[in-house]
Design brief:
single chain; alpha/beta; 7-stranded mixed β-sheet; 11 helices; globular
């Protein structure tokens, strides 16, 4: 997040220690560096106490991001903290572990079925992976157009209006026209005919989402692929599909192995996924995987040798930590296919139990799909004197962080609550959530707010995460 430089009278604010350590017997500047040093224990205590004001990660049902890992994984990640990942000459085994992870993920995404040479890289998260994949798509489109003597001035990308905000950043940062497929009553994900109607010779790609941020639904990527194949055959275009599998990339291979969404489909040229979501790693690590070396334009690859050897890189960040990559490899070894399958099925079972319990109250309707991500999205039934935002605030009093938001444009009159189920969220905690939600509904029904809270959706300010 952006932060401002605090100056003037506001900068005079100080931090007042809670405990009477002798080294903390005077106020400490809040917005300027202190003149004198503190002991390590004093600095720790001061920051530790202040961080206690944050929400409890265990009760944070808003985030897809992993909040629990094995102690052994944490130890390995701690041991890797001093290692700058980019220093491959100094830390060759860490680089080797990244290569193994790329290969494992490409295999999960059925790269072998394409008969081509898949490539990939780790990233700080899916946001960086999306920027990299999007840049590759733009450069390849531009090369094809230039080779044919055609204009390269008006690239566009087709995607549903339900995309995560990073796609808005991508098109704005890299000067690409965004063509959004509007939502419609009964459809909160991309529609295939509606997407095809927006495609033309300047389309660098069509984006399919494997796990919508709003409802957890998987978009119809197999049907989208069939339509794109037919369109390309008819027009001579080479429009590809990019799959945003930030949330679903580590769910579908284990919970829905027969679902075709990946490199088994000929139009799918690149995929991004987040290791720090259902890859079960602490933030932040993402992965960008390309179907073939031909999908990576040479112009975007950089060679350098000033770290001791010739390295080829394709990234937005140069330096980055090694810990999350080590954590990802630990999970692959520790859990294997059976472990990931067991965890994903358990999470889906928990999500279904929560959905059943919420629907049984008679106060809500289910908006999310039961054949998608392990999350539950619901809306209130009928007219109420309170909103989902009011319920969210009421649950916050018990420590629960349950987001309320409106659906994408054309459906933004629908307000929902969403519960994301992650590893570490037990059935017992799910029971407690239902009890607290039921109590919140009863309380607001008896004593509704004077003015129901509603926070309208804005396409350019979508912060659902």
């Amino acid at each position: 997040m952006l932060a401002k430089h605090v100056q003037g009278k506001e900068a005079e604010a100080t931090l007042s220690p809670l405990f009477g350590q002798r080294s903390m017997d005077s106020s400490i500047p809040r917005w300027q560096i202190p003149e004198t040093e503190l002991s390590g224990s004093a600095a720790y205590q001061l920051i530790h106490d202040e961080m206690s004001l944050d929400g409890n990660p265990l009760l944070n049902l808003a985030s897809f991001v992993t909040t629990w890992m094995d102690p052994e994984a944490q130890l390995l990640m701690q041991e890797a903290l001093p290692k700058n990942f980019i220093d491959a000459e100094e830390y060759p085994q860490t680089a080797e572990i990244e290569r193994r992870c790329v290969s494992i993920i490409a295999d999960l995404f059925h790269a072998q079925a394409s008969g081509q040479q898949a490539m990939g890289t780790s990233t700080v998260g899916s946001s960086e992976a999306i920027h990299l994949c999007g840049l590759a798509l733009k450069w390849n489109w531009r090369k094809r157009r230039a080779a044919a003597g055609l204009s390269t001035s008006t690239p566009n990308i087709v995607m549903g209006a339900n995309v995560q905000v990073v796609w808005e950043k991508f098109v704005r940062y890299f000067d690409i026209e965004a063509r959004y497929v509007d939502m419609a009553p009964g459809r909160s994900i991309i529609g295939v005919p509606e997407a095809l109607a927006l495609v033309d010779e300047n389309t660098i790609a069509v984006v399919g989402i494997l796990g919508s941020t709003y409802t957890g639904e998987f978009e119809p990527i197999e049907a989208l692929d069939a339509a794109i194949v037919e369109l390309n055959a008819k027009t001579g275009w080479q429009v590809p599909i990019h799959v945003d599998a930030a949330s679903g990339g580590f769910v579908a291979p284990f919970a829905y192995p027969d679902l075709k969404w990946d490199f088994r489909l000929p139009s799918v040229r690149s995929i991004n996924t987040s290791g720090h979501k259902y890859g079960l790693v602490y933030p932040g690590v993402g992965w960008a995987i390309w179907r073939d070396t031909s999908d990576l334009p040479d112009e975007l690859l950089f060679h350098d040798n000033y770290l001791g050897n010739d390295q080829i890189t394709f990234d937005l960040n140069f330096s980055k930590g090694s810990s999350q990559i080590i954590g990802q490899y630990y999970n692959f070894l520790r859990l294997g296919r059976d472990g990931y399958t067991r965890i994903m099925n358990n999470l889906l079972d928990t999500a279904n139990e929560i959905a059943d319990a919420i629907i049984a109250t008679g106060d809500f309707e289910l908006v999310s799909s039961r054949q998608a991500l392990p999350l539950v999205t619901v809306k209130l039934k009928g007219k109420r004197r309170y909103t989902c935002h009011d319920l969210s605030e009421e649950l916050r009093l018990r420590g629960w962080i349950v987001p309320a938001y409106t659906l994408p444009p054309k459906l933004d009159d629908v307000e929902v609550l969403r519960v994301v189920v992650r590893e570490g969220f037990s059935r017992d905690m799910a029971d407690n959530l239902i009890l607290d939600l039921t109590a919140a509904v009863a309380k607001l029904g008896q004593s509704p707010p004077a003015k129901p809270t509603k926070k309208p959706h804005s396409r350019s300010k979508n912060k659902v995460c």
